[in-house]
Task: inverse folding
């Protein structure tokens, strides 16, 4: 029985709070990795055009035999700097993602980066409105957007993003941005929810909470995300680790645990690029 709770998005759709991410998994390995995740009980799968593994992901979805309505599939538009992102280009890329995934719709389609210096995310969003209205994406949202871009979308569009997927983990907990999301009715989704590994998971504060509950560092960090209300998409290609990351529902962190993990966040805790200047 799938124990994963769901988050109700601002358009009424529901999204599993814990999913499986496939960043950096080669396409040739994606079918097996996603298949292992689905077998373990994950029903939300997060991919992206730039990951180059939509085809393998789609093969795993088809081979699983699971009803489409039980699955929640996210992919993302790679709005790279080499293109002028008008309506036709966005629709072409969306059609390409659907074809690779072997699906007639996705559950969530995201603009991968705001690239605010180019000022084209508003035009892209207008086409996302069209995609959402068509039903070929059950919900649309953004990734790596900051407060200025979110507030501009909210001011200039009738459609508020359902989700903003951002780097978020105890070393960089994005408290201010999460508050903006709450004000605008946007769900917070964490990429690199485990901080990309051992530098976070072996910290004394994390190890102490893990020992207290008889859990791993990864499990207590994922539990922290769930109790904050974040959506999290951990990634692993190891079947045992895939199962371990889903086994986070038999315990609860107390206020002391949450405070200890919250205290780890610093302004220098970001691991990935700063979206303000990212245009690669």
Result:
């Amino acid at each position: 029985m799938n124990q994963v709770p769901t988050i109700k998005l601002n358009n009424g759709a529901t999204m599993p709070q814990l999913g499986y991410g496939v960043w950096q998994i080669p396409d040739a390995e994606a079918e097996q990795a996603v298949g292992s995740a689905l077998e373990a009980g994950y029903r939300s799968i997060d991919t992206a055009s730039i990951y180059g593994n939509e085809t393998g992901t789609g093969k795993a979805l088809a081979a699983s035999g699971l009803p489409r309505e039980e699955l929640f599939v996210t992919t993302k538009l790679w709005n790279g700097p080499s293109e002028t992102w008008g309506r036709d280009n966005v629709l072409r890329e969306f059609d390409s993602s659907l074809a690779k995934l072997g699906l007639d719709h996705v559950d969530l389609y995201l603009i991968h980066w705001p690239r605010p210096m180019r000022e084209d995310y508003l035009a892209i969003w207008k086409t996302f409105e069209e995609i959402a209205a068509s039903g070929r994406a059950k919900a649309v949202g953004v990734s790596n957007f900051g407060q200025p871009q979110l507030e501009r979308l909210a001011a200039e569009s009738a459609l508020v993003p359902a989700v903003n997927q951002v780097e978020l983990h105890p070393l960089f907990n994005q408290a201010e941005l999460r508050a903006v999301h709450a004000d605008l009715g946007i769900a917070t989704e964490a990429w690199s929810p485990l901080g990309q590994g051992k530098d976070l998971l072996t910290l004394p504060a994390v190890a102490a909470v893990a020992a207290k509950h008889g859990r791993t560092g990864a499990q207590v960090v994922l539990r922290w995300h769930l109790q904050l209300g974040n959506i999290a998409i951990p990634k692993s290609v190891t079947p045992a680790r895939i199962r371990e990351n889903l086994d986070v529902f038999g315990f609860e962190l107390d206020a002391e645990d949450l405070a200890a993990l919250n205290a780890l966040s610093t302004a220098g805790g970001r691991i990935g690029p700063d979206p303000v200047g990212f245009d690669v």
User: Anything to note?
Assistant: Residues 122 and 153 are 7 Å apart (CA to CA). Strands lie at 6-8, 14-16, 20-21, 44-46, 72-77, 108-111, 140-143, 163-167, 187-191, 231-232. The longest strand covers residues 72-77. The first helix runs from residue 27 to 40.
